[in-house]
Predict the structure.
Amino acid sequence: MSEIVEFELGEQIAWLTLNRPKSLNALNREMAEGLNRVLRQLQGETDLRCLVIGGAGEHFMAGGDIRYFQSCLQQPRVELEGEIAAVIDLVNDSVVRLRSLPFPVIASIRGNVAGFGVSLVAACDLAIASENARFTQAYAQIATTPDGGNTWLLPRQIGLKRSMALSLLNEMLDAAAAERIGLINRVVADEALDEETRAWARKLRRMAPGALAGVKRLLNASLENSLSQQLALERHSFVACALGEDFREGIDAFVEKRAPDYK
């Protein structure tokens, strides 16, 4: 029996696949637990250069599983509260772990992206989507509010007014619109998504891992820091990189006009 969240390693790249294609990879408790388990495992990996997150089949993630929620509603109020809170706790912990991984995370997107699927895309460092991708918050449609860091991430990435429109009016974005407002980085032809995703991952694999981790830390910290705090953090990070072997390798490779071999 296949895992509901599949995970494999190869060439210093981790591939995580949400694997409920018959349900459009909608989130239920089992998937929330699987996602959290894999991200906990990844924090202990020291040789990775990149993580790619995608969905099995024709869709990335169509939000929460409505049938799962419907089954939860059959429980007494106290048990319902505990069940929903437990899933949200798993989701929240996964987003924090995703943001703090010491290597870049790419969302590779096709088809429907709704609810927590949008939060997951926003939590990734880079996002590439096929032309058939469609994005919608969907929370208002079932009379609830966003989760998974959605209301923290979106205003910082696409602005407050756009976040309000997506969330209050339940607007649908096609891939081109999502790229235009900054929710994703690039749109490619449907048939080119897998190869373009691999190209991004391989490019990251060739870069200095310490520098990639530093860039991610700096940009995430900038969302909360003052300019003076950020300048001090940049200074500390640059000096730390300059004292490492990869910096020496990068300088030597540039002077010798060859590709660097980072460790």
Q: What stands out?
A: The longest strand covers residues 5-10. The domain at 209-255 is CATH 1.10.12 (Lyase 2-enoyl-coa Hydratase; Chain  A, domain 2).
